[in-house]
Specification:
The protein is α+β, with helices and mostly antiparallel strands. It has two helices and eleven strands; from the N terminus they run H-E-E-E-E-E-E-E-E-E-E-E-H. It has a six-stranded mixed sheet, with no helix packed on it. Strands 3-9-8 form a three-stranded antiparallel sheet, with no helix packed on it. It has a two-stranded antiparallel ribbon with strand order 1-4.
């Protein structure tokens, strides 16, 4: 809820939020998992929503790296008045801040990705007067080769086979229907001939009936 709204509904909602402080935290958004090819560059995207304009004097950002779930977090990039890189041995100068806090973007790019870069990357954002720090995590997976591209050839072949099978089935049904229709027409014709023959005597003369 952003300030500036005095409607009864807004005031009621505000009172509910005040009663539940955890709801006041800003929303920080990042993909849960990112795959990167070994030796490539990858952007770890992190954005946030805030009711307040970003002021460099108050805004703060921390990016940390966590090798495993039970490992301690290592600070490698932060924003305090300006962007500052903590040159961890594992990253060297491969970290480049590519976001723009005034546009609620705090992403960074990791260059020349290595297998040992796999792990969890935590994005912490605080934008006063927001009172609670927002947080999002990204799990980075490093691939040694590109994943196989989806081959549509098999799907096309299967689709064509199924389509061909259905066409044959429809053709058979049509043939069966036509045969049944012709057979019914033949039976109707035979019945009609039988009725006409019943109206004549055995010599082929019309039956005059009782005079």
């Amino acid at each position: 809820l952003c300030p500036g709204s005095n409607s009864p509904a807004s005031l009621l909602l505000l009172s509910v939020l005040v009663a539940a402080p955890t709801a006041l935290g800003m929303e920080v958004m990042a993909p849960a998992t990112i795959n990167a090819l070994n030796g490539s560059s990858v952007k770890l995207s992190c954005t946030f929503n805030s009711c307040y304009k970003v002021e460099n004097k108050q805004f703060s950002l921390n990016w940390t790296y966590q090798e495993c779930s039970n490992c301690s977090e290592e600070l490698f990039l932060q924003f305090r008045m300006k962007i500052m890189n903590k040159q961890l041995d594992r990253f060297g100068n491969r970290v480049e801040f590519t976001g723009n806090p005034t546009k609620y973007d705090v992403s960074f790019t990791l260059k020349n990705v290595q297998l040992e870069d796999e792990g969890t990357y935590n994005c912490y954002v605080l934008n006063p007067p927001d009172r609670h720090r927002g947080h999002a995590s990204i799990s980075l997976k490093v691939l040694t080769k590109e994943p196989p591209k989806h081959d549509s050839t098999v799907a096309v072949i299967v689709g064509a086979s199924v389509g061909g099978f259905l066409a044959v089935v429809i053709l058979v049904l049509m043939v069966v229907k036509c045969v049944r229709r012709k057979k019914q027409q033949r039976l109707n014709t035979d019945d009609q001939k039988t009725e006409e023959e019943g109206k004549t005597d055995g010599e082929g003369n019309p039956d005059e009936g009782t005079k």
